[in-house]
Design goal:
By secondary structure, the chain is of the alpha+beta class. It is 32% helix and 13% strand. The protein folds into 2 domains: 84 residues, D-Maltodextrin-Binding Protein, domain 2 (3-Layer(aba) Sandwich); 35 residues.
Length: 123
């Protein structure tokens, strides 16, 4: 069981993960909640990745697309590869009833293209 193997390690996450919410891991039809009791309160996934690279703990808030090269170079290791975190949807919201400015449309196009061009991101 992955909960017992993780709950006593220093787990690194951003503010959204260390505010009392557990880490949710999935494998096939099994769902496990792992409490996060981190000594570090990090702002985001970049800080969690940097802290993991500095041996501060296990980053549970690092994105695959952002860490894959570090894993390949053996600077990080994928802990419990048979388990996956719960999916986290990404949304881009625009106001209803107003036509977006050309700058907003350009930003939306840029984000969509970057997302589609990265094979580690699921669209």
């Amino acid at each position: 069981m992955c909960r017992g193997s993780l709950e006593f390690h220093e787990l690194l996450g951003g503010n959204d993960l260390v505010n009392g919410a557990p880490l949710v891991l999935l494998k096939n039809n099994e769902r496990v909640l792992v409490p996060i009791h981190s000594k570090l309160r990090l702002k985001d996934h970049t800080a969690a990745r940097t802290a993991a690279l500095s041996d501060a703990g296990i980053s549970v808030h690092a994105f695959r697309y952002d860490t894959l090269d570090l894993v390949r170079r053996k600077q990080l290791i994928h802990v419990l590869p048979e388990w996956e975190p719960e999916p986290s949807p990404v949304c881009l919201l625009l106001p209803v009833g107003r036509k977006p400015t050309s700058a907003v449309e350009a930003l939306c196009d840029f984000i969509s293209e970057k997302w589609r061009s990265n094979p580690e991101l699921i669209f």
